[in-house]
Here is the input.
Amino acid sequence: MRQFRDRLERDLALTDDQRAQLDAIFGAMREKFAALREAPEADRAKLAERNRTELRERIADILNPDQKKKYAEIIAEIAGRQSSRGRLFVLDAGSGPRAVAVRTGLTDGAFTEVSGEGLKEGDTIIVGVQAAGAPAQKSAAPAGPRLPF
Here is the structure.
């Protein structure tokens, strides 16, 4: 957070008043992020994203129009660099499903780049389950370019 705050101060050329407001915003948000430790694990990611959204909105509120434009570029750059962690299941021919820890990368909303130890191109990935005896569901092929991994 400190690096992010320093970058905002430097790249947006904040005034003294804006720096003071930014300090207050980060102070209040620090408490909200600390409170996530007490939240149920299943809710933490959603609450953390809500906190990040609130932080971005509160920062944008103290900026002038030129600063807001540069701030949007900074946020877009950061969002483009971030990757998430997750898990998917690979279907191994003889042994059945195998969990693989992955990091997600670029996405177009239909296809997402993933990488992980033991994951290789051509692996069969489980994308859903079907109850025994249930009719197969047809799904439309997603539109958009396919991103290689």
About this structure: Helices lie at 2-11, 16-35, 41-61, 65-81.
